[in-house]
Design brief:
This protein has 839 residues and is α+β, with helices and mostly antiparallel strands. It is built from 23 helices and 39 strands. Strand 32 and strand 33 form a beta hairpin. Helix 5 (119-128) runs antiparallel to helix 8 (175-190), helix 11 (286-293) runs antiparallel to helix 12 (314-324) and helix 12 (314-324) packs antiparallel against helix 13 (331-348). It is globular and about 85 Å long.
Amino acid sequence: MRRWPALLSLLLILCVSAPVFVSAPVSAKTGPYLDTVYFDVRMQQEIGIQDTAAGKTDVFFYGLDGGVFKSLDKATLSKLDVYAVPSGSWSLLLNPIPNKAPYTVKVKDKEYFNPFAIREVRYALNWLINRQYVVDEILRGAGGPMFTMATPGQPGTYRYNLVASRLGMTPEGDEKKGLSMIDTAMKKAAALPELQGKLKKSGQWWTFNGEPVTIKFLIRVDDPTGRTPEGHYIADQIEKAGIKVERLLWDRSKCSKTVYSGNPADYEWSIYTEGWGAGATRAFWDNIVCQMYAPFYGYMPGGADPKNWNYENAKIDELAKKAYTGNILTEQEYWDTVLQAQELGLTEAVRIYVAYQTQYYLANKSRLQGRFAYGLGDGLNNWSLITARTKDGTLRATQYSAKGSLFMSAWDPVGTDGFNDVYSNVIAQPLYDPSTFESPVSALTTANRTIPVSVESKVHKDAKGNVVGDIPVPANAVVWDSKAKKWVPVAPGTKAMSKGVYKFRFSNFHQGIPMSLLDYLYSDAFVREWITQDQPGDRWYDATYSSNLKPLVDTIKGAVYDFKNKTITTYFDYNFPADKGRVAGWGAPAWTVTASGQAVGVSWEIVEALARMVAQGSASGTVYSFSSTQEGATEVDVLRPSCVADIKAELIKMKNEQYVPAPLKGYLSPADAVKRYDAALKFIDKYGHAYISNGPFYLAKFDTKANYAQINAFRDPSYPFTSDYWVKQFKTTLLSVDRIEIPPMNEKGKDVTVKIHVSQSVYPDDAKSPAAKGDVTLLVVAGGKEHQYKATRIGAGLFQAKIPAALTKDLEAGSYTVLAIASLAGGVPSTASTALVVY
């Protein structure tokens, strides 16, 4: 199948500061710098911190909150390298049922008035809440105000945040305005014929049928220094508007079950203190707009479950889908579409962002030879392990788990539930090389094992305004027919939006078998087989797997496998004029079949053995599934000893049968298939597991009871990357807007001189110096428009721009958002904002 990391991995992305490599020359070798990484776990953060400082471990692979980090003493800090990462965010999710007048909901025999069913009341919270207070007093300055799902400073995010500025949102808010907006909306509702005499203000509280109008506020009690005080502060603000708050201090499990799995119509909750973790570094955010604002995606109240009452907004769905699926002709149309969806999400105010958190990762300063790489959007990740250097070639990486477990979910390399915990992924991701990935520096799609030779798109809009493809799919393009169990030509007359020609960086898998086009051929067929139900009771079909992958796989119209030239040409329906690299990534072939959304994969003989075990039964009699929720079945797991024993038995059976999977018949001889099965069996006997992949490390040892794992460098001569390859690829000069100088008060009709201080660093080194180059632009948001002025470099790291009198003379007295954007080719733009005050 094809992996689209930006589409499958949908957790919120956040801003990070630059990683660092030591500049001392180190001789390059095949594979990573490190020879061995040891993983273990600590059940208390304090122990993890002190063990890192004492050198008992090298890296604490866990982000500390600001309160914990800022309590560390100088002696401890002096022994640590610190990686500050804005890798978490807080939002509020509101229950808007019924989202229309007269704003009442009936549960059993009682009728309730829901103030959050009034859009204007929800929207007013943006002014009622002082986001800066939350940052300063609750986060202790370790973070920043947040208005949209796009954290300031991330690639492409300033456009989204300007939408909030144009709507008049500010970090401090405006309590008086917010209370007035709520009061006006409530009085308007009270005047409705259905509510006259029922809804009225009685003393401090609004009342409905003689009882105070009350909302149920789910506040996370298991975040005692963060979301607990945040919830209490916001509850206090809401009560100032005469709406009583029932504060329900619940843990994550109870909150999640009620909010995300429950029916809003049960009216068990009104508002919830959400928290989000980082996902990846991304240049484009349309998928996150879908996730956080569009009902079709399943993250809004009701979860798009037809059994529930669901929040609906057809316009947001239409716009978000249009941008997400590439149903646009030009880059300008893309931005117009996605930003309109963003604005509707803000004004609907069903999800309201409050703040982002800065978290802190720690490494022992004396053990590491310089600092290692991490994503500008997701912090420590597989690149941290691939680029880390120590003198002895070993690294000890410690994770924090209150339950003390590193293996909390099945290592299922196929199903949607596999690798469903952060601990497993920290270990597994360095074992696998994806086809493409999003660069930790630029966030752009970057070739890894699959290299685009050429990519083209040809589209037009049909009579209905839909974008359709104009590229003919040739007669030698094929697709897998799951019913006939064979490759068939694409239907005559088929056209696609885009065409990509790809070549590959092959190597041996960890069991010693060389990669080839057959791995991609098998993957393509496997996915189509398991997403297609050919008849009732089809044993080679998985409904959950299908619901996850079918919408994406259906965009692939067919492929031409050129075994002579070792290329694959893919024809697919995706158009993205803002970035051809993203188009290339969409159609890029991959040999993994996972539906987990994680960067994992195992070689096809293991996948086929698992498939046979699921569809036909296992040697032990265990009923297996590619899901954790199938009743009466056990999810496959390539680490669990009982499952590994069944995998071995199935491989032996396949060997004895001289079995060749249907998609590979005519391409692979029985003898070569047997060699593969023998190699896999030998690997399993040696290492005790069946996670056979192709990455820079392999899993050498593990103990699920002792919560320990060891990965070793894959030094096979066929491995295509040397230890310094990605260091060189990622090296980029980055700019940072450090300070904006603007007069505190400015007279109308006069020029305003603005000075912008900009520094530069060479990614991944974090040593800063005054910027010697780059472009700086000043944006002033006024009158619902963006006024843009180019800054001139007047000295080392100093740029100057002028806001002309022609603009200030037309401004009303007040405060206006000013944004400075520093950019350099190949790097992530840096932004900072301030206020222009005119009198």
